[in-house]
Design brief:
Layout: H1 2-7, E1 14-17, E2 23-26, H2 32-52, H3 73-97
Antiparallel strand pairs: 1-2
């Protein structure tokens, strides 16, 4: 799984671990729409993995943010975190409603 994940990115793009279970992907010259496509691809890989390996089931929470020239990396990461937490909250609400 790890090797496949890293192969999905171009050489100028960076995937790095920044905490216990936190990773950052830096995608230079990438639009928000392309970042969303990467997120969809990652979710598809997780779903495929869980189809064949049911225990333990993998899950992942992802967020994305697009930077502007005057923004710090820390600000962009915080924006992506906010997006991820909103997604998690929405998902939890949908599961609760089902």
């Amino acid at each position: 799984m790890r090797l496949r994940f890293y192969r999905r990115f171009n050489p100028d793009q960076i995937v790095a671990r920044i905490g216990g279970d936190e990773f950052v992907m830096i995608l230079p010259d990438t639009t928000g729409e392309v970042a969303v496509e990467y997120i969809k691809q990652i979710h598809a890989l997780i779903k495929l993995n869980n189809k064949y390996y049911r225990e333990p089931e993998l899950s992942i929470s992802l967020g994305a943010a697009t930077s502007k020239p005057d923004m710090t990396l820390e600000k962009v990461i915080n924006m992506a975190d906010d997006t991820m937490y909103r997604y998690k909250s929405d998902l939890k609400q949908r599961r609760k409603d089902d």
